[in-house]
Amino acid sequence: MYGQKVALADLSLEIPSGKIFGFLGHNGAGKSTTIKTLVSVIRQTSGDVVVDGMKLTDNRLAIKQKVGYVPDSPDIFLELTANDYWDLITSAYQIPSELKQARLERLVALFNMQDEIDTPIADFSHGMRQKAIVIGALLPDPDIWVLDEPMTGLDPQAAYDLKKLMRAHAEKGKMVIFSTHDLATAEELCDELAILKKGELIYNGSVAHLLSTMPEKSLETIYLNMVGRQSDTKIVSELEGSDASE
Ligand SMILES: Nc1ncnc2c1ncn2[C@@H]1O[C@H](COP(=O)(O)OP(=O)(O)OP(=O)(O)O)[C@@H](O)[C@H]1O
């Protein structure tokens, strides 16, 4: 609930380890609200989240230590340099300094941020801010990755590398949860999906199963059939008509 507004209703989900789990849904469907609840950024008004048998309401700190979170907006800690931001995470997660240095060197090289370490985040482009946040989220080497639209703004190389990292993490038996509006990425990357519509779960299952419901169709077509406007063609042709008459 946000004040009187119900953002999610009757949401019940089991998210497996060792798989890439994707959240899909139109703007305002409740993806970020679900994710923020999972990572304890906001508190649900009813129900609970259970991680490794631990209830989030009773074990907030212990669970947070397991989670690396990329929020939906990278416009955070703008006054800090990238390095100050990573230092902040290092102390919050109590990462030993040698380990931090080794991990940071690898991540900074991977995301091509070597020349930007001492630049204030405020001076970064959107994609560079996103890279700084992704590096920060992965720095503690968390078991559970929760990434809210992580590819937004990343250049093709960084997006490709992040997808590879996500797959490798899942293959280690770890948990990877992310949201996206990019249905081609979801089709390529996700093993399991949750599709939300106006705060309700309308699909939870494997991508393979969903694709098998309409053989020969892409995830985009199937998704739009489930979630999209039914009168699309009419609206588009009306708009085309008005453009043509101008
Ligand atoms: N801080 C807030 N205060 C009030 N209502 C909010 C707040 N954040 C989200 N909402 C509402 O909760 C609902 C779900 O929003 P949420 O951000 O979870 O959607 P989303 O699926 O992540 O959307 P998007 O794809 O646009 O990021 C929306 O109706 C939104 O208006």
Automatic annotation (TrEMBL):
SMART domains: AAA (SM00382). InterPro entries: AAA+_ATPase, ABC_transporter-like_ATP-bd, ABC_transporter-like_CS, ABC_Transporter_VariousFunc, P-loop_NTPase. SUPFAM superfamilies: P-loop containing nucleoside triphosphate hydrolases. Pfam families: ABC_tran (PF00005). Keywords: ATP-binding, Nucleotide-binding, Transport. Residues 1-223 form the ABC transporter domain. It comes from the Bacteria. GO terms for molecular function: ATP binding; ATP hydrolysis activity. This is ABC transporter, ATP-binding protein EcsA. It comes from Liquorilactobacillus sucicola DSM 21376 = JCM 15457.
